[in-house]
Design goal:
Layout: H1 6-29, H2 33-39, H3 42-47, H4 53-89, E1 92-93, E2 101-105, E3 108-115, H5 123-141, E4 148-155, E5 163-165, E6 169-173, H6 175-180, H7 187-190, H8 192-195, H9 199-225, E7 226-227, E8 230-231, H10 233-241
Parallel strand pairs: 3-4, 4-6
Antiparallel strand pairs: 1-2, 2-3, 5-6, 7-8
């Protein structure tokens, strides 16, 4: 592999981390109160004795944003990994379903599915990835121009030894993943510093927008789901779960 120029990595991160923060704000701007109310469990909030409308909305908003943020940042890490691979071994974004990155190194063609963290999938998603790997390997091995094929499940953070996943792929995690695409054992720590580029400035903008959305949603919730300042739990549950359409037996 070619030696990685860390200044190029920093420049890439500094440029593209801005998009991550912009997408976070876009997520807030496109939210709809009724959509997120339908996605969360009203019984849980009642069991926790939530009485403040603002507390309820903040909890729902934070839960929604947390899952959305993980997806947005996962997309950023995937782009970063593809960029690094491009510089070290002419890697490229893969067109294979379920595969994010592919490159050839030492007469081995590597197919990498990139996940941001270890808890990334349910059983159906795991099965889908296994099938995607098997299909890709079969197709590539039928080509006389393709060397040996190595599927890889690459996970950006975590602390697990490299293992064989489902008997068909390598599972490389954390430091091992970043080393796998760069042969730089310190890359996993080298990328931390540039990730904070203008982070405080971007976070202040995000918190300002979050505060605006929180105020608007709280006002809307008070008008539609509260009576004399109290949460109308029956009305909220009916909105969230009322759908009686059972056929008569």
């Amino acid at each position: 592999m070619e030696k990685l120029n860390l200044n190029e990595v920093k420049e890439f991160v500094n440029t593209n981390i801005v998009t991550f923060h912009e997408n976070k704000i876009k997520t807030l701007e496109n939210l709809d109160l009724r959509k997120i109310l339908k996605a969360k469990n009203p019984y849980l909030f009642k069991a926790k004795n939530v009485t403040l409308a603002s507390e309820l909305i903040l909890s729902i908003l934070d839960a929604y944003l947390s899952s959305s943020e993980e997806k947005i940042f996962g997309d950023f890490l995937e782009k970063l990994a593809v960029f690094i691979s491009l510089k070290t071994c002419k890697g490229r974004k893969s067109a294979v379903s379920g595969v994010d990155l592919e490159f050839t190194h030492k007469n081995m063609h590597h197919l990498i599915s990139i996940k941001s963290g270890p808890n990334w999938a349910n059983s159906s998603q795991l099965n889908a990835l296994e099938n995607n790997f098997k299909t890709a390997v079969t197709v590539l091995r039928q080509s006389h121009h393709t060397p040996q094929v190595q599927p890889v499940l690459g996970i950006c953070y975590g602390k697990t030894r490299t293992t064989t996943w489902r008997g068909i792929a390598l599972k490389v995690v954390g430091q091992n993943f970043w080393y796998y695409i760069s042969e730089n054992e310190n890359l996993y720590t080298d990328i931390i510093e540039p990730l904070g580029y203008r982070a405080e400035e971007h976070n202040d903008k995000f918190l300002e927008e979050k505060g605006r959305v929180l105020n608007l949603f709280t006002q809307e919730f008070l008008e539609d789901f509260c009576v004399e300042g109290n949460i109308d739990w029956e009305r909220l549950v009916k909105f969230n779960s009322g759908n009686l359409d059972l056929m008569n037996g």
